[in-house]
Design goal:
Length: about 425
């Protein structure tokens, strides 16, 4: 039978229970193999209960010291109750100087104490009892998160100035650098907000007119890594020139914000090709324009496009790629059966083949058709987009001006290996 003897307002601070007539401290910590919280108990005496009732600081210090023992138990191990019991008298019944000395020898959870109001400077100096004089039952988890974030930065040798910290708060990345940045002006000290907005304006001016395109090879919402890197480099350089006092973390968070916003604008835009939308003015317009195309992937899935449909051929093709592309599905083909020509995109090798029919087959029992196959290297998704658009507008002939075409497969393979070796 279990009865609760003493509990505090915060549900995570350890409770005192009576189980089968014995006093025990009960706390939740860690998780089991199914990610459910684990609960640990160990025996205490009436004298320990009296201190726990009356002294919040000692109660919290005991919790901080026991948590590493719970972590050591892992997902299924038992709490070392002897080690936990050995902490009771030194923490709850000893003089403050002896408690401070103990905490210099043992492992303890600093974050919980900081969340409950511990003085960080005193903790850092090893004066744990004095640090807990202003302790509160209600925790402030954000305070502990900020402390750990600053510790990680300090380990990297980064010290934030007021404007650096304000920029990280503005983008929501003060606590976690991997968080998707967003604009949160309310998180910034109003006195620093004008300076923050000047830095943001510098970044916006630097990348005005730049965009981050889609990269359907990696899925419908993927964006072009090269475009991202180009924009980030541009913004970084501009911000560093205009604001040389900023640390790297602050500069990176601004460029991350600009790139993330540009990428999101791209993802929310229909997958259309502006170049093809101006097809009537193209040198490959008129009769050279494709009317029926067949798209296939390496798994044999096929999709047909017709010119009388509502969408452009490139938009439909790249949407098909975004839906179907995967690590084991990286070869896509566009074929114009009527004209006897097509292109094959090899995403795994950053290359393309254009295929034209030299001689039609002569039917059952006759000669097989003869094809001319030529290869070219491709420079990223931008290169693929250019080649696909040119083929859609003007067929294989329109590809002549784009790249260097090699008909010998062995020669092309050597060229590809040389490029990859650079």
């Amino acid at each position: 039978m279990r009865d609760t003897v003493f509990t505090r307002s915060s549900g995570w601070i350890p409770n005192v229970i009576r189980e089968d007539g014995e006093l025990k401290l009960m706390l939740g910590a860690g998780a089991d193999a199914n990610h459910a919280p684990r609960t640990f108990t160990f025996s205490i005496a009436e004298a320990h209960l009296a201190v726990i009732r009356e002294d919040l600081a000692r109660h919290l210090l005991l919790w901080s010291a026991v948590l590493p023992l719970c972590d050591a138990a892992g997902t299924r191990g038992r709490l070392d109750e002897d080690a936990a019991g050995a902490l009771l008298d030194p923490i709850l019944l000893s003089a403050p100087a002896d408690v401070d000395a103990l905490f210099r020898r043992i492992r303890w959870d600093r974050g919980q104490l900081i969340a409950h109001g511990a003085d960080i400077d005193l903790l850092e100096r090893g004066q744990v009892c004095a640090a807990m004089r202003a302790a509160t039952e209600t925790p402030n988890g954000k305070r502990a998160q900020e402390y750990h974030a600053n510790r990680r930065r300090a380990e990297r040798g980064t010290v934030l100035g007021p404007l650096d910290a304000a920029l990280l708060r503005y983008t929501g990345q003060y606590l976690h650098g991997a968080t998707v940045p967003r604009r949160t002006p309310d998180a910034v000290d109003p006195a620093l907000l004008p300076e923050v907005l000047r830095v943001i304006a510098t970044a916006e001016q630097a990348c005005a007119g730049m965009r981050i395109g889609r990269d359907p090879r990696r899925g419908q919402r993927a964006t072009d890594k090269r475009d991202w890197e180009r924009m980030a480099t541009t913004v970084d350089a501009a911000v560093r020139r205009a604001h040389p006092e900023l640390v790297d973390d602050a500069v990176r968070t601004v460029s991350f914000l600009m790139c993330s916003e540009a990428a999101e604008r791209s993802r929310s835009t229909p997958m259309e090709d502006d170049e093809e939308a101006a097809d009537d003015r193209s040198e490959f317009g008129g009769g050279a324009r494709k009317t029926i195309l067949s798209f296939t992937d390496d798994k044999g899935v096929e999709k047909e496009w017709r010119a009388d449909g509502p969408r452009t051929a490139t938009a439909v093709f790249w949407e098909f790629v975004g839906d179907r592309s995967a690590s084991d599905n990286e070869v896509f083909t566009i074929e114009d059966e009527k004209m006897g020509e097509g292109i094959q995109l090899h995403f795994y090798a950053d290359s393309i083949a254009r295929i034209t029919t030299v001689r039609e087959g002569e039917g059952e029992g006759g000669a097989d058709p003869e094809y001319r196959v030529e290869y070219s290297l491709v420079d990223g998704i931008g290169g693929y987009r250019t080649l696909v658009s040119a083929f859609v507008r003007g067929g294989c002939a329109a590809l002549e001006q784009h790249g260097s075409w090699i008909s010998d497969a062995a020669e092309f393979e050597r060229a590809r290996r040389e490029r990859d070796a650079d």
